């Protein structure tokens, strides 16, 4: 590997870390404003963007966590008034997790603050699509 390649990789990694730090700081401040648990953001995203009902087992799979861990996350969010458990719309034996009005407000605020940061505003739709593809390839390379 050449020195140039090593330097480029280091610059890419540092840029990704800087962007992640900025996003994490925005997320942390927003969660703090709502007195929400630090673990809330991934679950809020899943529940806000899922087209299908999300059971606690689904949440565990989507978070790539043990079901007991996902259940604890759901409990914390329910105690914070962000999530409610409701009967499944088509299977009365199951419960689904849904955002409460407060959970929707937090998700909207979080999304708005992240979008307001403008880090992607100078990119064309084609560039954003390409970036998503590249990041997806990078993430795929991380998995064992």
Q: What is the structure about, briefly put?
A:
This protein is mainly alpha-helical and 144 residues long. It is built from six helices and two strands, in the order ααααββαα.
Structure, explained:
A hairpin with a 7-residue loop joins strand 1 and strand 2. By secondary structure, the protein is mainly alpha-helical. The protein has 6 helices and 2 strands. The chain has a two-stranded antiparallel sheet with strand order 1-2. 67% of the residues lie in helices and 7% in strands.
Please supply descriptive tags for the structure shown above:
mainly alpha, 144 residues, 7% strand, two-stranded antiparallel sheet, Arc Repressor Mutant, subunit A
Topology:
Blueprint (H helix, E strand, L loop, with lengths): L2 H31 L6 H10 L6 H8 L3 H13 L3 E5 L7 E5 L1 H16 L8 H18 L2
Antiparallel strand pairs: 1-2
Helix pairs in contact: 1-5, 2-5, 3-4
